[in-house]
Amino acid sequence: MEWNFLTAEKLAAAIRAGEVSSTELTDEAIARIERDDKAINAICVPDFDRARAAAHAADQARARGEDRPLLGIPVTVKESYDIAGLPTTWGMPPHRNHIPAEDAVQVSRLKAAGAVVLGKTNVPLGLQDIQSFNEIYGTTNNPWDHGRTSGGSSGGSAAALASGFGALSIGSDIAGSLRTPAHFCGIYAHKPTLGLAASRGMVPPTAPALPTEPDLAVVGPMARTARDLTLLLDVMAGSDPLTLGVAHDVTLPPARHERLHDFRVLVLDDHPLIPTGSAVRAGVTRVADALADGGARVEHHSPLLPDLSEAAVLYTHLLFSGFGGSFPLEAYERLRTQAAGLDADDQSLDAARLRGIAFSHRDWIEADRRRELHRHGWRQLFTEFDAVVCPITPTPAFPHDHNPDPRERRIDIDGAEYPYLDQLVWAGLATMPGLPATAIPTGRSPEGLPVGVQLIGPTFEDRTPLRLAELLEQKIGGFQAPR
Fold first, then answer.
1. What is the mean pLDDT of residues 229-243?
2. Which residues are the active-site residues?
3. 8-255, what's its fold?
């Protein structure tokens, strides 16, 4: 049997039934990587010897009667997570030899759940791109079209899953870094509610792996089915055992509904600051039609929806103020000077990025106050709706573009060019207020490229968009292997 594209859930059942061993699954996954990854370049740091040893240990544990959620399941891990004995570089050449001594919290949780880690997956430089390429490990290609990006910054993980390199992966998201690669590669991903999953050990080299509460950023699961997302989220969820975890256990509420016809869904396909390409619009429509056909209440407008333009600018300010804090002083001062010279009437997203970089602490506090108003607006909206369906980016995967200055890049939307970074506005819709969002595949573009959408849910009600994703998978289909 071909095991590489089966779900983690089915693999776990097969292992429990004695139909296959973890050693067999791991050897088959490694063989596939060695055969196919030269063209994809998803696995940047293989760890095959330790994977085989972990698989053997999993088989021994199974023989002793042990049963854990991921016992014996081959998985991959985004390069940005610390794994003891393997390099963590974030694609930055000066740190190519940085090798942590301890596992990140989420790697420890994977291993405790019995997972077999095959290796690490590729990322962009500093995790700061919508593509995955760097000078150390090269470029990760989209499995559907090698001339196009797999997305970023969890692009290596998405490409690995689409190629059958392991059943699950873990990534991270601050600007769509879980959702965009899922959309581009035709898989599933879930951006958890801000603060739901501990991120210690997902830090740039050579920063110490200390417990922090990052603004905007989350870690989360990637899979080939919605049910597998839930399986992996249950392993990942929970506060850092050094901080909030001392006193708190996480118990997520159940999904609001179990049947499609009980859901109330707001569908969005237009953004005031960037158009939606025809292929993505068709994907949103397909989901809306499936919801309506299944008896769900579907609306396309609501006065409760927070202002999308204001949300995009606020997200941009918060995101780039965080980035600016890590810039070299000379570059930071140069950008601050440019921001000071902006025309007061310039309300473009380019201007918002510059202003965000130049934020003072006073500016950030005011932005955070306005974010709380948006969060309250979303709470009100979710008294009337259970989920929001919308794009992840305006287009399917685009051709590789390695221009070193992202401000000079352009994104083609149905033949018209727009600033490259403007495509982040849809990802920011859930990120800025810290909402959970599940990326699901919806089918293919006319060119045969995967197209996905995101399902945004209420804060800490992650099981609601995940359940809706599962129901839509049954209705419109899900992952398909690249042909």
1. 98
2. 78, 153, 177
3. Amidase signature (AS) enzymes (3.90.1300)
